[in-house]
Design a protein that fits this description.
Elements: H1 6-35, E1 37-49, E2 55-57, E3 64-72, H2 73-81, E4 87-90, E5 99-101, E6 117-122, E7 125-127, E8 130-141, E9 144-148, E10 152-154, E11 159-161, E12 164-170, H3 171-174, E13 179-181, E14 185-190, E15 194-199, E16 207-209, E17 212-217, E18 219-235, E19 241-246, E20 249-257, H4 258-261, E21 270-274, H5 275-280, E22 285-286, E23 289-291, E24 297-302, E25 306-312
Parallel strand pairs: 1-4, 8-13, 9-14, 18-21
Antiparallel strand pairs: 1-3, 2-8, 3-6, 5-7, 8-12, 10-18, 11-17, 12-16, 15-17, 18-20, 19-25, 20-24, 21-23, 22-25
């Protein structure tokens, strides 16, 4: 049996004390460091508020302003950890020229405490034009990044409810807006359908109702199949002409969600040849145009080109 020496026992006793002393030293260093003053550049979301009732800004406003400030490390840490604060400017400060000084608006922002010193604001002033508020319906556009587990994918386009939202603002500004986009969503390794409430991206100077929409993602296992013996139809043939096809039927390879592919009927897939396409192609072979149900993609046509013979009556 090996006996522990006195020095071994002393090392075990002293180790926790060393770690504790080191931790206290680090905490003391952090406390002293955060108590010092620092300069920092920040981009702060900017919002114009308190315009006259029934009026909106017709000026396209910046989404943020740039601040150069000096404050303690503690305050900087608090600013980084906090969320949702914006730099608000009241429309009540509009001068006759329509210009607002952002420096004069500092006192309106409660998060700008006395221990924060503003060294620079860019821009330092903005010019505002405003007109009566109107409303328009705008389509919602989805921003989303999705990755799927192997063998899965979207069986159809995402469904957004509602598809359109009411946007309130100045006519001049609303004319520049084609659609209202959602905040970016990211989902990984998806293997089944789901729905999600998503906030609409805010645009400075306008209001959107509702502020959120619901998005439905139809995720299914993606499979491949084929539909055989689809008749090829020739359309817009002159009365004194007849077109003979060889072959007169084709096979189409299809790909899509397993639930949709299982319900596809042969008559839902169309193979069409325009008579004018036959005339325009001197080779005597034409590729038919394929019309298929929504959410189903084509993988191949067999044969890809059809031999055509025109007969005169």
């Amino acid at each position: 049996m090996k006996l522990k020496s006195k020095s071994d026992k002393q090392v075990k006793i002293n180790t926790p004390i060393v770690f504790l002393a080191l931790l206290l030293a680090i905490l003391l260093w952090v406390f002293i460091s955060l108590s010092n003053s620092y300069q920092m550049n920040m981009d702060i979301p900017f919002r114009l508020v308190n315009l006259p009732p029934g009026f909106s800004s017709s000026t396209k406003l910046a989404e943020s302003i740039h601040l150069k400030l000096r404050t303690t490390g503690w305050r900087l840490l608090a600013l980084h950890l906090s969320s949702g604060f914006v730099f608000q400017v009241s429309g009540n400060q509009l001068m006759e020229s329509g210009i607002i000084s952002l420096k004069d608006a500092i006192s309106e922002n409660s998060w700008m405490t006395d221990d924060i010193k503003i060294l620079d604001i860019s821009p330092d002033e903005i010019k505002i034009d405003y007109e009566k508020t109107i409303s328009r319906q705008k389509k919602v556009s989805l921003l989303a990044n999705l990755t799927f587990k192997d063998g899965f994918g979207l069986a159809r386009a995402p469904v957004i409810q509602p598809e359109n939202v009411l946007v309130y603002g100045a006519r001049k500004l609303l004319q520049q807006i084609d659609s209202i986009v959602t905040d970016l969503m990211t989902f990984e390794n998806v293997e089944k359908g789901f729905s999600e409430d998503v906030r609409l991206h805010s645009i400075n100077g306008v209001q959107v109702q509702p502020e959120k929409v619901r998005v439905f993602f139809d995720v299914q296992r993606i499979v491949e199949s084929k539909i055989e013996n689809i008749p090829v139809e020739v359309i817009n043939v002159p009365p004194d002409r007849k077109v003979v096809l060889s072959p007169a039927e084709i096979t189409i390879g299809i790909r899509g969600g397993i639930e949709y592919l299982g319900r596809i009927k042969q008559e839902e897939c169309k193979a069409i040849i325009e008579y004018k396409d036959i005339i325009a192609d001197s080779s005597g072979y034409v590729e038919p145009r394929i019309y298929m149900p929504e959410f189903i993609s084509r993988t191949y046509i067999e044969p890809q080109r059809i031999k055509t013979i025109i007969k005169r009556y």
